[in-house]
Structure formats: C-alpha cells, structure tokens
Amino acid sequence: MPTMAVTTSSPGLTIPSLDVVITTLVSHYLLSFFSIVSLTYVVYQRVFAPLAGVPGPFWASLGKGWLIARAKKGDLHRELIKLHEIHGPLVRIAPKEVSVADLDGIKMIYGAGSHFHKSDWYSVLKGHRTFDPFAEQDPHVHAAQKKLVIRPYAMETLKDLEPYVDSTVYHFISRMREKVTQQVDLGKWFQLFAFDVIGEITFSKRFGFMDTEHDDGSLKSVESTLASAAWLGHVPWVFWTHDYLKPWVGNWLGVTNRTGSLMQRALKEVEERKVRGTDRNDFLEKFFRLQREKPDQVTDVAVISMAAANITAGSDTTAISLRAIIYHLLLHPEYLDLLRQEIDTARRERRLSDPVTMEEAEKMPFLQACIMEGLRIHPSIGGLLPRTVPPGGCVIAGTFIPAGHVVGTSAWVVNRNADIYGPDANTFNPTRWLKGNRHEMQRYFLTFGGASRQCFGKNIAFMEMSKMVPTFLRHFDVELCFPDRPLKEKNFFFVIQEGLIVNLTPRDEVAEGQANGGAEKEMNRY
Ligand code: HEM
After folding, report:
1. Residue 481 in marked binding region
2. Which end of the chain has fewer CB atoms surrounding its CB within 10 Å, N or C?
3. Does domain 58-506 correspond to CATH entry 1.20.1250.20?
4. Residues that bind heme, according to the entry (predicted)?
5. Rounded (10°) angle between helices 316-331 and 458-475
6. Global confidence as pTM
7. What does the alpha-carbon distance between residue 280 and residue 154 come to, in Å, rounded to a whole number?
8. ipTM confidence score
9. What's the gap in Å between 503 CA and the centre of ligand 1?
C-alpha cells in the first residue's frame, strides 16, 4: 500500500499527508542549501579567491573539470596558445592553477636554483617508486639522485655511444631502402627507430622493432601511461584512492604501466646482463660502474629505474622531434633545398661520413638551425610542467599568487612568444637561428624543460637527430603523400603526431655508394 496517501477533508480541497509535507520540505531545503552553497562557491571563486582576477575559461575557475576535459581530448597545448593570445601573460586554468607566459615569471619558475618544485601532478607518475629523478618532487632527494646517475648523460661520454647510434641509423636507412616503392609511414618508422636506438645505447640490444616492423606493446604502454597520467595528475587523489583499493578492485589505470611492464622489461634486461656480462660501454655498463663505486647508493632499483627512464623519457620524445623536423622541412621546400645544399656541399668536399658523425653535424649551421626550429615549433612535451608556488607566494605579471598554488608553462606557449622569436613566431623558419639573437632565444627555450629540472638526455637526443636528419636526407628524396592533409596530433603530455606518410626515392650517387658498400657497413667516408 502506498504510504503517501492524501486525505480529503471536504469536496474539492486536498490536504497532503504529513509525510508528503516533510518530503517536500526536506527536498526544498536541501535544494536551497545546495543552491546557496554552490552560489557562494561560484561567487568566492569568481570574486574573492586569490586568483579571481586572473582571466581564463569560466569553468576552469570552478574546478578541475576543464583541465581534465582538455587532457582527455589532447588539445591542451593548442587551447593554451589561444587563451594566452586572448588574455595575455596569465591564464587561470583551475581554481588554484595558472598558466604563465610572462618571461620574468618563467625565469623565476624554471631558472637554476628555483624554489618552485614539481607539483603533485608528478606524484601519479612516481607512484611508490623510490628512485625516479623525472617525477621526484622533493628537491633534496632529486639533487642527490641526479648526482649519482648524471655522469653517463654528460657530453664527454657521448663519444662512447656514437657507434651504437650509427649502427641503428644505418639499419633504419637500409630498412627504408626496402620501402622505396611503397607509401611509408615515416612517423611510425621514426618511433620504431627511436625505441631501437634507446635499446642499443642502453642495453647494447635493439628491441628489434625495426626488424619486425612493430613493437612488443611498449609503444602502447608508454602511450597509455601518459594518456592516463595526463588527466589523473590533475586529481591525484583518484590515483591514490585507486592505489589503496587495487587489491580488491584490480588495476584500472594505465599510468601504472610506468611501474609495471616497462619496469619489468628494464629489470629483465638488467638481470640478463648481469649473467651475460659485456665488453660494451653502453648506458647499463656506465650505471654498473657507478654502482661499483657506490654500491650502497646506486642500488639495483636505481639502475633499473634509470634504464626504464631512458625508454619512457627518451623514445617517444625523440621520435616526435624527428617527425616535426622532417614534416616542417617537407612543408617548406625552400628550407629543405637549403639544407640539401649544405649536405651535398659537405659530401662533395668529402666532409661527410655515412652515417654523418656528430662532429660533422655540428659544423653544419643550417642543419642545426633546422633541428632547433623543429624543436621550437613542435615541442615533444605539451603539458604544463607544473610547479608549486613556494612559501611566501610570488608575484608574476603584477599578480600575487599564494603559496601552494600551481603555476606552469607549456613550451608550446613560450616557444611562440613574438617578443623573443619575432612576428613570424608561429611559422617554421630555421633562418631565425642564424640571424636572430640566439642567446635570447635559447634562454627561454623550454623544449627540454627549465634549467632547474632540465632533460638528462638532451645531448643524446641532439646526437640522434644530428645524425639521422642529414643521413636520411642524403640517402633519399622525400615527398609527402598527402601534402594537403595536416598531421593529426594529440597531447597526452607528449604531443604525438600521426599521418606522416611519404614516398621515398633513393638519391642516385648515394645509392651507388651503398650498392658497393652494403647497408650495414661501418661509416664509409666518401
Ligand atoms: C628530443 C628529445 C627529448 C625532449 C624534447 C625531452 C624533453 C624533456 C623535458 C621537457 C623534460 C623536463 C620535464 C619536466 O620538467 O617535467 C625532460 C626531463 C628528462 N628527460 Fe628528456 N627529452 C628528450 C629526450 C630524452 C632522452 C633521449 C632521455 C634519456 C636517454 C631523456 C631523459 C630525461 C630525464 C631522465 C628527465 C628528468 C630530468 C629531471 O627531472 O631532473 N630525455 N625531458
């Protein structure tokens, strides 16, 4: 029987029963209560909160929903460019988070010795790992870890790694020669190359992706890690709640791959190497040498973690950069011609090896300019590099931002700053690196992060690109199959492109040289 019966006291007049009255009143008051709380919250965020005066999307000022939606859609970098064009140097992107395009502010946040430390966004990447320089938030722990493992990444040790990069570049070229009659997904091949080269320099063992033309799941693993971290980082409590409940609910988050399958791969390689030994001077050997010097501090966990970091931080990032450089050169034949001239002149003058050496590449100013410009126009990392405001707060672009709030800059925004790069900052123009104020341009160049937490692998990445780009272009004429179809891109912290499909034609002189020499021969000097 229904409980909410009504009683009729006289014809035409209906009196509700007591429980109906109570239910109606409660829902009415609850609704009013929530409306008042919500309204108060909106008024607070829009009028009284410390960041109320900072412009930005309406929904961003009220919660993390806007950021999460962008992270899911993968367009945060493009949105930030637009928003800064509209609003100027500061944009509020969450109730307590600001995107900064102000140059003094950027220097303050990322400069050497900065007190702005990595925000909680990174905690989801770190999880329970005890050794992880990339995601470490504590500056003292980070400094100690960096000191222990940075030596193998230094410029002086690059020479040891060069032959490993050479053999992988040569393998790439020989695989491309097999593809000259087909449409080639060059973007995918750069990714296979970038993973194989990391395998070679870290473990003296290519992963074999270029041989099989696909990977063993590692590419997906990195991608799902980043896609998941990109949104979870904005709500770390979701990650930690899931972490707590995992024994009962299972693993639902891709970000845990960073501590899962990739670590397992690194672990396997390290264990195998311990048994097998080696006479090669690759990364693993360099880490083992550090371990022999300080066995208590450079633990097995540290070695495995750094090997895994090479894969996650060094593969996709390099592939993205190679795609960007070649794609933009193909879109701008005038610059491609200039680069070809530089390559061909060096070759005619017998100043060019095959593959091109690091030393030779450094003497090619236009090549270096093209690499810098590709890195500028399409930085691999499109996320915000978020940092927590230190105690005492800070003033950026005349606005006070309290301690504990988050500030950050995407390289996509600052790398397009017209005050630094000129009025054509939005277009690919390598000549700016030859005639512009290079020092000033490099000072704010955020593609490899800020000085306080700069990329460990920058030198290695430059070595790979400096070899691959001229060697590839001396071997092939390259043409976009679909010049009118822009590449698709998705920002999952890394801004990954899709659709770099090309036709390759072998360049005759080189083809002859190679026919005589064989694809896998070491370094032929012409
Ligand atoms: C073109 C290629 C690359 C680009 C654009 C790039 C970019 C970056 C950026 C922007 C950061 C700072 C991230 C942040 O502040 O949150 C970073 C950090 C890092 N990168 Fe790279 N990277 C590249 C290649 C590599 C390679 C090849 C390796 C290793 C072999 C590597 C290892 C690292 C490590 C270990 C860190 C953490 C540094 C720290 O926080 O102290 N990267 N990278």
Report:
1. no
2. N
3. no
4. 455
5. 40
6. 0.91
7. 18
8. 0.98
9. 31
